[in-house]
Write a sequence for this structure.
């Protein structure tokens, strides 16, 4: 069974910067959805903080990862996630349950922010769509 990743920011197709665009292009859209938690504006990118009990939602989409493990390694490097030293990583890759637009739930990977968010502005809508990305265009 293929692995999935929930994406809410710069890894979205059309929003991915040049250095990660090739890896992001290999992801296959599965469904729009959300995870529970808070989304923060960190300047050029957002950061998610999960909270399954929260009434706040982080909106994004689930993508299927290709079988090539190099893609996940490239995503980890882009997100500054070091599996050998997660405590030093800017983002950490964790498992979360995404609620899909159709109402079903799917466990998938997500990159969550691993720093203090007290100085960051929370994005109340839970939506960060740079470049106007929507599933219909991705």
């Amino acid at each position: 069974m293929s692995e999935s990743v929930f994406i809410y920011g710069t890894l979205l197709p059309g929003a991915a910067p040049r250095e990660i665009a090739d890896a992001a292009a290999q992801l296959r859209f599965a469904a729009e959805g959300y995870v529970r938690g808070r989304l923060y504006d960190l300047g050029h990118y957002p950061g998610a903080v999960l909270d399954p009990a929260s009434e706040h939602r982080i909106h994004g989409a689930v993508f299927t990862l290709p079988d090539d493990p190099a893609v996940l390694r490239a995503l980890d490097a882009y997100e500054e996630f070091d599996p050998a030293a997660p405590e030093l990583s800017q983002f950490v890759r964790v498992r979360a349950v995404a609620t899909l637009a159709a109402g079903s739930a799917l466990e998938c990977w997500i990159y969550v922010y691993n720093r203090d968010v007290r100085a960051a502005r929370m994005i109340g809508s839970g939506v960060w769509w740079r470049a106007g990305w929507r599933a219909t265009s991705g």
